[in-house]
Design a protein that fits this description.
Elements lengths: L6 E6 L6 H7 L6 E7 L10 H6 L2 E4 L4 H10 L5 E4 L10 H5 L3 E3 L6 H16 L2 H9 L15 E5 L3 H12 L3 E5 L11 E3 L4 H7 L2 E4 L13 H5 L5 E5 L8 H10 L2 E6 L19 E3 L10 H18 L10 E2 L6
Parallel strand pairs: 1-2, 1-3, 3-4, 4-5, 6-7, 6-9, 7-8, 9-10, 10-11, 11-12
Antiparallel strand pairs: 5-13
Helix pairs in contact: 1-11, 5-7
Length: about 325
């Protein structure tokens, strides 16, 4: 039987007045309170010592390895760190990995919009939107054949919550889905799921490939020259995970050689993408400024899920270890 407990929360927020952070301060469940908001490294020292002793939850809407290291040193009794983001590579550090606290993320909060982006990207190339836009600009009425998504194959590299959302939407379009997961699983969505050594096979089978894996030391550069060399001729690569997962130089080379027929990129090795980067000038490239998860309410919704689901469970005495959004700190996802 679990016992109720208190939650004394410190918010790490770059802007305490951000609507998503303001949403955390009001209507907290009974037993929870925000005891401090920290927006700079200097503010750690300003927290009263009596407050320091009771802090057991960190809510990070702005953070870095340095900030988290300082926070865990300043608040040693922290039991739970929650990141209001899906990716946690920006906060995973030795201090966090070695600390006994549990780490969770906003898994699931951004999956729907990223799945929509994936299907939009597939349609962009299948219906040859660049040609349509050019013909409109030229006032040119010229009919041409387009491709159909139905019957084509989507590869999903990283079959977590976002990857599964992409797969479900692809199935609604009548697509075949091939997934890649380090430990392969069987479910009612993917037609087949390969293990970690199946990337080349996936690339060779798929008309469209979406990279939805988290960035870890093991996934950095995993979609490199070898994997891209095995890509199906004319296939489209979509990256919504993290830029460094894909070898950018090898990707561009594959596009220019015709091995890849198109790129849809929401993430890049360097962000913002430099104005002189060659990707800006390449044909068959759809670029977006890492904003395909930025809906009008995405951060407020992520905060609400923390308040109404995870925080309520924590206050009821449930072990964070059993939360479905638990991050394995050593693995980075």
């Amino acid at each position: 039987m679990t016992s109720p407990r208190q939650a004394n929360i410190v918010v790490l927020a770059k802007d305490a007045k951000d609507p998503a952070n303001v949403a955390l301060y009001g209507d907290l469940p009974s037993g929870a309170k925000v005891v401090a908001t920290i927006s700079s490294m200097e503010e750690f020292a300003e927290v009263d010592e009596e407050i320091v002793k009771g802090v057991n939850v960190l809510f990070t809407s702005w953070s870095s390895k340095e900030v988290v290291t300082e926070a865990l040193e300043r608040f040693p009794s922290v039991e739970w760190v929650h990141a209001r983001s899906a990716g946690v590579e920006h906060i995973i550090c030795p201090a966090l990995v070695s600390h006994p606290c549990k780490l969770t993320n906003a898994r699931g909060c951004f999956s729907s919009t990223l799945a929509e982006y994936t299907m939009m990207s597939c349609s962009y190339f299948a219906k040859d939107l660049p040609r349509l836009m050019k013909q409109k600009a030229d006032r040119n009425w010229e009919q041409f054949c387009v491709k159909e998504l139905r019957g084509s194959t989507l590869g999903v590299v990283g079959y977590g919550d976002i990857g599964k959302a992409c797969a479900r939407l692809a199935k609604a379009y009548g697509m075949r889905v091939v997934a890649l997961k380090r430990t392969p699983i069987e479910d009612d969505v993917a037609d087949v799921c390969y293990g970690g050594d199946g990337l080349g096979r996936l690339m060779s089978e798929c008309d469209y490939v979406v990279v939805a894996a988290p960035l870890t030391e093991k996934t950095r550069g995993m979609v490199g020259e070898e994997a891209l060399g095995m890509a199906k001729e004319g296939s489209v690569l979509i990256n919504l995970g993290r830029g460094p997962i894909v070898d950018e130089k090898a990707m561009i080379k594959a596009l220019e050689s015709g091995r890849l027929g198109g790129l849809a990129l929401d993430v890049f090795e360097t962000e913002p993408l430099p104005k002189n980067h060659e990707l800006w000038g390449l044909d068959n490239v759809l670029l977006s400024p890492h904003n395909m998860d930025m809906t009008e309410t995405f951060m407020e919704e992520a905060t609400e899920v923390f308040k109404t689901e995870w925080l309520v469970k924590f206050l009821a005495g449930e072990d964070v270890e059993g939360f479905p959004n638990l991050v394995q700190k050593e693995e980075g996802y």
